[in-house]
Design brief:
Layout (H helix, E strand, L loop, with lengths): L6 H7 L12 H11 L11 H9 L5 E6 L5 H11 L4 H4 L5 E6 L2 E6 L12 H9 L6 E8 H9 L5 H16 L9 E5 L5 H13 L20 H10 L5 H14 L6 H13 L14 H6 L8 H4 L7 H4 L3 H7 L9 H9 L7 H9 L8 H12 L5 H18 L5 H4 L10 H13 L6 H16 L8 E6 L11 E7 L7 E6 L6 E6 L7 E4 L2 H11 L4 H4 L1 H25 L7 E8 L5 E8 L1
Parallel strand pairs: 1-4, 1-5, 3-4
Antiparallel strand pairs: 2-3, 6-7, 7-11, 8-9, 9-10, 11-12
Length: 603
């Protein structure tokens, strides 16, 4: 059978990690769409209506769109231009600067600030005059990568208006705000767009594209000889397959940790998920490859679960692509737990694991218990495998697959997050972050675990205390590994202004562990990234402080110093430092692991 070439598949392929991915750039996408006659992928544009309405006002303000490369800045500019009545043909001529008259005001578009020559950047001087209200009939819409934005303003004549405008832009970037006072400028940082919210919408848009209708009459669209591209598409559409949900969780964790994924990288990810295969040109399938893949029994290599992590690519290529570098930091495939590996390796012959083996492995004839995996596993168990690494690679792929197919009701039993580097990531996301987001109370077990972990780091002792935060030193240093001199106990529960609790900054969406000392002095906050939450949780469960992350250990010691400084502030307010008799309280850990203090008077 021969597979007919699909223009839609060819178009989608351009978004993937190929040497010349023209669809990555808005300047050429329209030309390709017209040439291939495909329906473009429409991106969810959060600010589009707001931007268009601004330029229709009697007195509009200038707009700067910034963000990392691939966030959709040029795409926004083009769509605003079109909705304001601008000629699409003129826009496609790729002039660096375009002008449009809207309601008597001149709107000047600069689609990429980095492309302007030094002389052309002189127009920013005029923009500064408009920002400072010296010319209210001219406004600008400028797209600029965040790394180049301020630098461009430094390279032009430093007039009074230019200096002020640059300062305003810098303050907006730092504060994460759109507007300041009454200055006639708004800044939209597209890097603040949440990739976890965009991703499901993007996948739905791609899956619903009418281009897939070309595949309807393909001879490889039947169950007997299924095209791997269509198989991967079907798995994304199947609600029982948790690919989109679990990938969205991973992206949410990235956003919480301030690892922003640009739209361009999300497009690359989805293209690679659907089309990836290591044995074809550019490691991405097209229609003519399908007969060879099926006849060569290598369909399993097109597994969408492998493609999520760029396993179809050479290692050097994979490590050069941001989205794969970011997702592979979770260690999915290389991390595991004994139960998962026992199911995969011994499930066929061991009654203890046979039911789970049937449900999680045998039920997937394409990417689960395919002939290659079964034969390689048998050879591995019998010691007849010439290359054990070939089976270990297959085992890695199965772990990756299981992360996305284990049912929700089995998550706790099979410890799904143990398949990642961050065993407590699920709790951090679902029980802490989402609870704070929904303004619900975080369960006390997570607060007390944080306190227990902090106590072990602060004191250097294997303590079990979790209802009070122990502040201690070595007597002459707050940074000592073991600190036995008690400075103070801080109550976890609200008590005379003392407390320890989780907080969410509504503006930045950052999570903090906040320690209050009294109603008269400000609290101390620790920014809780995923790795810090993981670190403190592991220490609470018995891991040595320096063994998981030396950087996190030093961060917590710095936090300890801030806590001791605030304790000193409280003592000054309460005049505790007027006593002439100094009492040292030495820490002792009793048989239950709880701290007791023994006073030692010093004259």
């Amino acid at each position: 059978m021969v597979a007919k070439n699909s223009e839609w598949i060819s178009f989608l392929r351009q978004y993937g990690p190929i040497p010349r991915n023209d669809n990555m750039y808005d300047e050429t996408i329209q030309r390709i769409i017209k040439k291939k006659k495909v329906t473009p992928i429409k991106i969810d544009m959060v600010y589009l209506d707001e931007l268009v309405e601004n330029f229709k006002l009697p007195v509009p303000v200038s707009v700067i769109l910034t963000g990392t490369a691939g966030d959709g800045k040029t795409y926004y500019c083009r769509e605003v231009w079109k909705q304001l009545g601008g000629s699409e043909a003129l826009w496609n001529e790729n002039h660096k600067i375009n002008e449009l008259i809207v309601n008597g005001n001149k709107v000047i578009f600069i689609k990429d600030l980095s492309e302007l020559s030094d002389d052309e950047k002189g127009t920013l001087t005029l923009m500064a005059d408009a920002v400072m209200s010296e010319n209210i009939n001219v406004v600008y819409m400028v797209a600029a990568n965040d790394g180049q934005l301020l630098d461009s303003w430094k390279k032009i004549d430093q007039t009074y208006n230019v200096i002020n405008t640059r300062q305003i832009i810098e303050e907006l970037l730092i504060e994460g705000k759109q507007r300041k006072n009454d200055f006639r400028i708004k800044l939209y940082n597209l890097s603040q767009t949440n990739s976890a919210k965009v991703f499901p919408k993007l996948v739905k848009e791609i899956l619903n594209n009418p281009g897939w209708e070309e595949c309807t009459n393909c001879p490889y669209s039947s169950e007997e000889s299924m095209c791997p591209i269509l198989e991967n598409k079907k798995r994304l559409e199947n609600e029982e397959d948790l690919i989109i949900e679990r990938l969205t969780d991973l992206l949410s964790l990235c956003e919480i940790n301030e690892l922003h994924i640009p739209l361009r990288q999300l497009l690359l990810l989805v293209s690679n998920m659907l089309l990836g295969h290591p044995d074809v040109k550019d490691k991405l399938l097209n229609c003519k490859d399908i007969p060879k893949i099926i006849d060569g029994n290598s369909l399993y290599k097109a597994s969408i679960y492998r493609n999520i992590f760029g396993e179809n690519l050479l290692e050097r290529k994979r490590n050069s692509i941001d989205i794969f570098l970011t997702l592979n930091r979770f260690g999915i495939g290389t991390e595991t737990n004994a139960l998962i590996d026992n199911i995969l390796i011994f499930g066929e012959d061991d009654n203890q694991y046979s039911e789970l083996y049937k449900k999680l492995v045998l039920s997937d004839k394409y990417y689960g218990a395919d002939a290659t995996f079964i034969s390689e596993k048998k050879a591995y168990l019998e010691g007849d495998l010439l290359d054990k690494y070939s089976f270990l690679d297959l085992l890695k792929s199965q772990r990756q697959r299981l992360f996305f197919v284990i049912p929700k009701d089995q998550e706790d039993k099979l410890k799904i997050w143990n398949l990642t580097t961050f065993h407590y990531a699920g709790e951090f996301l679902n029980d802490v972050y989402k609870s704070l987001l929904e303004q619900k109370r975080v369960h006390s077990q997570y607060t007390t675990r944080m306190v227990k972990g902090l106590n072990r780091i602060i004191t250097g002792l294997l303590v079990e205390d979790k209802d009070r935060l122990i502040l201690s030193t070595s007597g002459n240093s707050s940074q000592a590994k073991v600190s036995r001199v008690l400075e103070e106990f801080i109550s976890v529960k609200q008590n005379r202004g003392e407390y320890v609790k989780f907080e969410l900054d509504n503006d930045t969406q950052k999570i903090y562990l906040t320690v209050g000392f009294s109603n008269d002095i400000p609290p101390v906050r620790l920014h809780l990234q995923l790795i810090r939450f993981e670190f403190i949780s592991r220490v609470a469960e018995g891991t040595l402080p320096g063994s998981f992350s030396r950087e996190c250990y030093e961060d917590i010691l710095a936090f300890k110093s801030r806590l001791l400084k605030r304790l000193e502030d409280r003592r000054k307010v309460e005049n505790d430092d007027e006593d002439t008799l100094l009492t040292l309280n030495l820490l002792k850990v009793n048989e239950k692991g709880l701290v007791e203090s023994k006073p030692l008077e010093v004259f």
